[in-house]
Amino acid sequence: MPKIRLIICFLIVLFPSTTLFAQEFDLVIYGGTSAGVAAAIQASRMDKSVLLIEPSSRLGGLTTGGLGQTDIGNKQAIGGVSREFYQLIKEYYNQPENWIWQKKEEYKDGGQTTTAAGEDAMWTFEPSAALHVITQMLEKETISIVYQERLLRTAEGVKKSGGRIQSITMESGKIYAGKMFIDATYEGDLMASAGVSYTVGREGNKQYKETLNGVQANYYSPTLQNKVSRNAINHNFVPGVDPYREKGNPASGLLPYISEAGPGIDGAGDHKVQAYCFRMCLTDHPENRIPFAKPVGYDSLNYELLIRNYEMGETQVPWINSSMPNRKTDSNNRLGFSTDFIGQNYDYPEASYEEREKIVAAHLTYQQGLMWTLAYHPRMPEKIRREVSRWGTSKDEFEREDGWQGQLYIREARRMISDLVMTQHHAEGLEVVEDAVGLAAYGMDSHHIQRYVDANGFVQNEGNVEAHVSGPYPISYRSIIPKKFEAENLLVPVCVSASHIAFGSIRMEPVFMVLGQSAAIAACLAIDEAVAVQDLSYPKLKARLLEFKQRLE
Q: Whole-model pTM above 0.90?
């Protein structure tokens, strides 16, 4: 026995990346987002051995991380495991014991109808309710789950042979082998490490003959008589907010987080990323509320633009405070200076884990400081202080003692470039794919991307887009699989192949769940057929998608 152990140790030293001691599965899913969870459930139901790897200690991504006001567009576009989740949410809230901080009849929905005739699901929920339901769904399946394991993002992290991924290695040294792999992360780390083509940022309008991509800086100026841009005007500053540390003195330097460069040419592409934030789960219940605290290192200069915006005439609270059950909220960005930390996430998609942690920490400190400023800063209007100070984070939602979550809202990071790229034309119904694996229905949406000084010497935000789609439209199977020569056994249901503006419509949690389930169905069929995912017969795939209640048209 000692000799055997010695040989094993010797082999590990000589061949640290060997799959000799790898755990093997039919399907390996990296990323326990809502898409990853849906994929794992589906693979289990198709009797495949499945591993779900979550780099953090909490499953569900944004669905359990504060995004309880479901962005959906048309609910009838959602089927399969995704709809099952929202049906279980309704069942959860039908149980009286789950109404702790208010009575069920006291709750008024914050925008998503839950009581319409024939409504079989509920679309607004507390993060804890989402986690409960996801846990409940997973417990009924045969799924191996590992937490706090991060992919080794080096050449040794993904072992490939003949265009197929053989195994992936974690930072811990653990190796997981599989017949098929799914990258369900918001960042696309497995996809990138596997050598799959991708992009970051905005394409120029010319690239895909779009009109809503690239720079969106056509602001309104009475002096220059510019036309009002419906995109630029939303969530922007009131006219005349001075950007300089000393008002009227450019030599004093710009206030924090304002770009020294101009926004660029309208419609031109760049590698900048739409802003991130935390979707706060707040409460006004005295027994469950944690008051906003001033963060360590607080500097009021970081919020001078916020204060000046009020001094120039802003009157509203800068948030969308959607009501959730139990006197809680899903609170999101609104107006010119709010929870979005504009321009401070450009490096995140490609950053190392350590660099990402610093970016996340900076976003948390910024947002904590923002909430304290709104609630308690003496220069804030009394009306704003009175309203914000009655709210606080919830004691009973997240692991941190201060009530803040760990999941940052990664609205967009890497996006795959495959044989088909979903564009504005697909979202508007001008082009229709014939290999649907799900439907998108939300409007084309982008949050602001940069903050700059306009030609009049005032501060402006740039990057917002809010454009409607005519109705649900199909998402192509080709948009969730790489080019064949790059990876034959990988599917990517989150960082899908889409232009920046089309991704703004697709990137909704219910749709990610739909695409995660469809990816798993395709992976299982490809295993059974012993083919590359690119060679899978779409008619066979479609039949199984419909069998598992996906909605495709």
A: yes
